Request: fold
Amino acid sequence: MRVSIIARFAAVALFTLEGCSAVFAQGSNNDLNGNQNTSRAGFTGAGAGGSNTTAEKAGGADGLGNPLLGGQRHPLYRLQPSDVVEIDFVVAPEFNQTLTVQPDGYIMLKDAGTVEVQGLNLPEFRAVVQKAYRGYLHDPEVAVALKDFERPYFIVGGQVGKPGKYELRSDTTVAEAVQIAGGFTQQSKHSQVVLFRRVNDDLVETHLMNLKKMLNERSLKEDAQLRPGDMVFVPQNSISKIARFLDKPSLSMYMNSTQF
Reply:
């Protein structure tokens, strides 16, 4: 009798240990380097397969950008005056149209009237068009496309070899922009390069950058990424003081429009 009880106790203990091992094996595993990886089997929702998270972050569109300037690294394009947009209706081709954004930021939709579109990205623009035609079509299915637009640009002025307006075709930093514009001249004060960034139609924000120190130390981690419409100014003399925000007319003190 005593032997039977001991054997039964040993069997229960072995079963318990095997169950714990199985649970632990499902919760984690070790890779070839001895690092512990958590199994997806223990999770539900977006993290289970990882597909939802991947889809949301694909391309990095509208993601956070350079923390120095608080901008977005890959912002979605937003409509501006003179942009040309194409609108196609799946089941009502009679409403198909190609329109140019007017200087005031509006477009005139066929039969649906005037709507403001300046500053909208394409998904937002599509939603506005759908809303405008709900009085004419039941659940309108529409596709929109950007046919023509002002190419993104940046401006470099002051003491550089070739001051001017340049297309912003890819990720470009302030130091790279100076090189594109012909590099520094012998008179340049490249320890006080100014980056002007538009806040709105009437106001720009200024950022003073010491490119001389960055280049000498070969450390460009603080070199700012340009955004469309940015203006870079390389002075000849030291700048004793510059306000953080300037109105557009004040830019004439730094940027000579005749150079462009």
